[in-house]
Amino acid sequence: MAPSLRDLQLTQVSKSSAGDDGDHEGVRLLDSYEKSGEGVEEEGTRRVQVRVTGMTCAACSNSVEGALRSVNGVLSASVALLQNRADVVFDPRLVKDEDIKNAIEDAGFEAEVIPEPSTNGVKQQGTLTGQFSIGGMTCAACVNSVEGILKGLPGVKRAVVALATSLGEVEYDPTVISKDDIVNAIEDAGFEGSLVKSSQQDKIILGVAGIFSEIDAQVLEAIICNLKGVRHFRLDRISRELEILFDPEVVTSRSLVDGIEGASNGKFKLQVANPYTRMTCKDVDEAANMFRLFISSLVLSVPVFLIRVVCPHIPLLYSLLLWRCGPFEMGDWLKWALVSVVQFVIGKRFYIAAARALRNGSTNMDVLVALGTSASYFYSVCALLYGAVTGFWSPTYFETSAMLITFVLLGKYLECVAKGKTSDAIKKLIELAPATALLLVKDKGGRYVGEREIDALLIQPGDTLKVLPGAKVPADGMVVWGSSYVNESMVTGEAIPVLKEVNSLVIGGTINLHGALHIQVTKVGSDTVLHQIINLVETAQMSKAPIQKFADFVASIFVPTVVALSLLTFLGWYAAGAFGAYPERWLPENGNHFVFALMFSISVVVIACPCALGLATPTAVMVATGVGANNGVLIKGGDALERAQKINYVIFDKTGTLTQGKATVTAVKVFTGMDRGDFLKLVASAEASSEHPLGKAIVEYARHFHFFDEPSATNATNQSKELVISEWLFDVSDFFALPGRGIQCLIDGKLILKLMTESGIDIPTDVENFVVELEESAKTGILVAYEGNLVGVLGVADPLKREAAIVIEGLVKMGVIPVMVTGDNWRTAQAVAKEVGIKDVRAEVMPAGKADVVRSFQKDGSIVAMVGDGINDSPALAASDVGMAIGAGTDIAIEAAHYVLMRNNLEDVITAIDLSRKTFTRIRLNYVFAMAYNVIAIPIAAGVFFPSLGIMLPPWVAGACMAMSSVSVVCSSLLLRRYRKPRLTAILEIVVE
Predict the structure, then answer these.
(1) Res 199: pLDDT
(2) Cβ-count burial of 247 within 10 angstroms (0-12 exposed, 13-18 middle, 19+ buried)?
């Protein structure tokens, strides 16, 4: 049997693990190995950890502890059942590792001493985040159970589990708990667990080609043992997967691969396993397995159904079935044999899942299926035995059990397929990244001597890659040679190809259209733009919308309530029959009141479906976040999605949000005898140190005035011009920015210069009139004071985005009130607001004051959205209910925002709100359907309408209804994939719902 990959020790063993005592059947399971004072070994002692396999209960762990403590030389021993691990401190002069291993094996368990990883170069700082695949979850109750277990583990800071993706995201302290421990905890809870990916960059999983015998495997292991920087490795000989734990400060993943392939003279070919690809394969395997189970169950159930329904009408076959073989007829033997295979072989998964749920103190759909099918099966068996003993033969219902399991498996298969389609957006994003890259090889002198194809997952920062025409850019980087147009629509949503020349930045996953490019890699792995987008979408799909709390609450009481209703149904019909409350003709042929009541009771159990409620929200959120990503709108979570559909106010920053952010100087007037050129040189010298868009516009205007050049198209030309400018400008010292007011600095160490819109100095009437004229035409007037005297005024205009006015009008039509907040003066702000149609304006607001403006609108309970693009907007973005960073914005703005609008287009604000509204309309429909289904179906199954309308649902029909209900909810959510964002021509037709 292949060794489990979980047997590899991945993280450094802490010398003093901290933990809590947890109870499981009366014993501690997740406790620290010893009390804190015993965590430090005394001089002359040694500590090892041993993985113990085969423990199932408290008695097992006590047995192992006793066996270890009885060994002469063992000072202390502690066993953690849930972690399948023993921690032993011993005197190495008396005891060897092998003695400890033998003691455990003599006690009847399997043992493996875990080598302590090297601590050289290892820096365990803070927490790590791991993503784990969790199999076997069927409803919200399972999710709550797994979340509770994970959150209770020592060292786990945060745990979120998503039903729709079957994934769990865990933030943990690697010095307290390892990834293996988390996987073990998931599996000990009765679910399937495996690590998908981790933020820790010290492990690589490789697929190995070239292993054909045990000798080949031994050669490979010998090669790895001789590589520097390798801490541990494990080779799975069946799957041909090689897992290596290495020291990233000693060796890189690429040098590991090169070292292994080189030492084997090319015999072994290694390929890095992509965690997303492995996860997708697992989803496909799960769907295929469910399909196989369904077909197997169908093949065995159809004969049972035919024996009951069709064969009685075919005399020859019916006579064979009536042939008595021992105490039973041949037909009864066949039905019992076929159904037993369905019930206990194919249906074993329902019993396992039900036992797992009950062991964890919860209930789920599997409990209902196991209960309903078992009742039908065991009643039929008892009816046969009773008939054999007494001669009174009651009807059997073997086909009910078989058909019920068949329909449930069909529903599970369809659900797997449908749930797989909800994650199509992630799959499409993953497919953007190319599988390989062309690495340019340099000699010692730095000259290019050739090129080689490498796995894209082995690219390192600083590599120089060649990107051919038509190829995808493998990683984020900077162009160092060549010129071409690149299609970035798949990442940013912008359809127009972008020119890339020397020093231009490129994004991994985009397509090079024409010329060849050489790029120097700046970001790889999780740091790339594409992976950050994927992470944002994943995080959104992992998060829970507040509305999900309703489903969680219902799930916690659903199954006990249904079981109670089933019992009441049985007692009610049985008592009514016993007292003669209904006629005997209602009973089935050869039936009795007990059987009649039991069929109603089983129907109630199997028709109730908690899965539909559990899937209503997460599947819709998954599809919506994927659709948003495809439209350039990244949503950070279900809570943000829920708040966005209730937005009352949208607050817009002016510069760079409503305007293009490309300010230009439109007017210059000098009010003293200073030469116009000298005036611009003075102003440009001061603004050269400013990052504000207005400052850059002034510098650009001054450069054009003095050098008569146009804004350059290439970054290389820009650099040469900036060099000329820097040599021409005055020296500046003591530069200081006054937020919202301007700047001040010293020129040549003696002159004070201020740029401002207000000052204590006297402003002549003609200057004031000129400034008023500028501001009323939506231009910003900047006054320049030099040595305490007003010397001139500049007029700077920032053109509005072409879609600004129509987007504002569209928001009003949607019932959302637009507001503009800016640090600019009142006259300019009001002129801009009038042009776009905004009535509520807040001007002359400092960056810190924008957050106060947001809070002022929130006082009455209104939901407020903030749209901004810069660092100065981040406080307001964080303070708002829904923060939207537009045009990709700055890293800080993206971090503070709840929505990231990849395109620099205001239409995406409408898209974000419209998508959230349609998503929650769909979620409400899902809930209405799921609740209505249970509210209507349970009374029908209980026979409430049987006396008046004669409606009775056989249990197998009830099972088919239950199976289809959850599939219907998922398919309803999938309809969101047809979402199309509103077009400009349609925006004005949007009305308040």
Answers:
(1) 65
(2) middle
Catalytic residue (one of 653, 873, 881, 908): 653
Catalogue the E-assigned strands of 199-255. Answer: 203-209, 230-236, 241-246
Predicted TM-score of the model (pTM): 0.61
Tell me, what's the pLDDT at 648? 93
pLDDT tens digits, 477-519: 999 999 998 988 766 656 678 889 998 889 888 889 888 899 9
φ, ψ for residue 140 (rounded to 5)? -65, -30
Going from the C-alpha of 882 to that of each of 355, 519, 638, 865, the distances in angstroms are 43, 37, 12, 5
Task: Determine the 3-state secondary structure of 389 from DSSP.
Answer: helix
* Of the candidates 910, 907, 906, the residue with the CA atom closest to the CA atom of residue 654: 906
| Tens-place pLDDT, residues 901-954 | 887 788 889 999 999 999 989 988 888 888 888 788 888 888 888 888 888 877
Specify whether 31 is catalytic.
Answer: no
Q: 10 Å Cβ neighbour count for 379?
A: 21
pLDDT greater than 60 at residue 2: no
pLDDT at position 519, please?
93
Task: Please state the φ and ψ torsions of residue 239, each to the nearest 5 degrees.
Answer: -80, -10
In the chain, pLDDT over 70 holds for what percent of residues? 81
Handedness of CA 701, 707, 709, 715 (dihedral sign): negative
Q: What is the number of other CB atoms lying within 10 angstroms of the CB of residue 552?
A: 17
DSSP track, 720-788: HHHHHHHHHSPPEEEEEEETTTEEEEEETTTEEEEEES--SS---HHHHHHHHHHHHTT-EEEEEEETT
**Which three-class secondary structure string do you get for 473-491?**
CCCEEEEEEECEEEECHHH
The string of pLDDT tens digits covering residues 370-410 is 887 888 788 888 878 877 777 767 677 787 788 878 877 88
How far is Cα 974 from Cα 968, in angstroms, rounded to an integer? 10
Q: Tokens standing for 100?
A: 């400890």
Residue 406 Cα to chain centre, angstroms: 33
Chain centroid to Cα 344, Å, comes to 36
> What distance, in Å, lies between the first and last C-alpha atoms of the chain?
61
CA pair distance 910, 138, nearest whole angstrom? 36
3-state secondary structure 352-390: HHHHHHHHCCCCCHHHHHHHHHHHHHHHHHHHHHHHHHH
- Counts of helices then strands in the chain (DSSP H, E): 32, 38
The band of 19, judged by pLDDT with boundaries at 50, 70 and 90, is: very low
The residues, any chain, with a CB within 8 Å of residue 488's CB and separated by 6 or more, are 494, 497, 498, 507, 510
- Contact present, 338 and 370 (Cβ < 8 Å): no
Using CB atoms within 10 A of its CB, is residue 871 exposed (0-12), middle (13-18) or buried (19+)?
A: middle
Q: Tally Cβ neighbours within 10 Å of residue 589.
A: 5
- In one-letter notation, the amino acid at residue 873 is D
Q: How far apart are CA 393 and CA 416, in angstroms?
A: 42
> What percentage of the chain exceeds 90 in pLDDT?
8
* Alpha-carbon torsion angle 330, 335, 338, 341, nearest 10: -120
Residue 544: helix, strand or coil by DSSP?
A: coil
